[in-house]
Design a protein that fits this description.
The chain has a domain of 138 residues. Helix 1 packs across helix 3. The protein is 54% helix and 0% strand. The relative contact order is 0.13.
């Protein structure tokens, strides 16, 4: 999620963009393993198949009247997932190395929210920075990081803030700026708002 980008701008960009990027990534992964697209090893087709089986079974058990509710819960689930994605990464950008490649993910590249109760309920999901730095670590064992930027509240509150863009920006924009030591040019800025944001913080285009 980019600095200056509202949740409502982010949601379609992330959902559509994620799907578009998933297709070539999965195709390349399968090719490296010597499998074709129409393979039982295709993770995308596995997920779609499980969804069809689940939805088909529930419709068979409860009739077609269950289908709108299944679709509604799917939309809510996708919306919540992408909203958390927005909250976890707003305005943050990995630095580039001199050779133009991105630096390795570190705890500084995602927002943490180290709240006891919500971390217990969400299996330490809010210790997201450690997940980025150590993607193989189990969620139950994720650790807090002193260098990770901190959200001012737990995910439940931050999701509500994100739904109201003016409130979200009032809460988060200055925290993004502080994370980069006042240098807004280091942040991930919404392209169409870049000139305005740079001017607002006294940076040059």
């Amino acid at each position: 999620a980019r600095l200056g980008e509202s949740l409502w701008e982010f949601l379609p960009r992330s959902v559509i963009g994620g799907f578009r990027s998933a297709l070539p990534l999965e195709r390349d992964r399968l090719a490296r393993k010597g499998h074709g697209w129409w393979s039982v090893h295709n993770h995308i087709l596995q997920a779609w198949s499980m969804t069809l089986v689940l939805f088909g079974g529930l419709v068979a058990a409860f009739g077609w009247r269950a289908l709108p509710w299944l679709l509604l819960q799917a939309v809510i689930g996708i919306g919540l997932l992408e909203t958390v994605n927005y909250v976890e990464h707003y305005g943050l950008l990995r630095a580039k190395r001199p050779n133009g490649h991105w630096e390795r993910c570190s705890p500084r590249d995602s927002w943490n929210s180290d709240r006891l109760v919500t971390n217990i309920f969400l299996f330490h999901l809010q210790r997201h920075s450690d997940h980025h730095a150590n993607p193989g670590r189990r969620y139950q064992t994720l650790r807090s990081s002193q260098v990770a930027p901190q959200l001012p509240a737990g995910y439940a509150s931050m999701i509500l803030f994100a739904a109201l863009p003016p409130l979200w920006r009032a809460v988060m924009d200055h925290r993004v700026l502080a994370h980069y030591g006042g240098d807004v040019t280091l942040a991930n800025i919404q392209p169409r708002k870049r000139r305005r944001i740079l001017a607002a913080y006294g940076a040059t285009v």
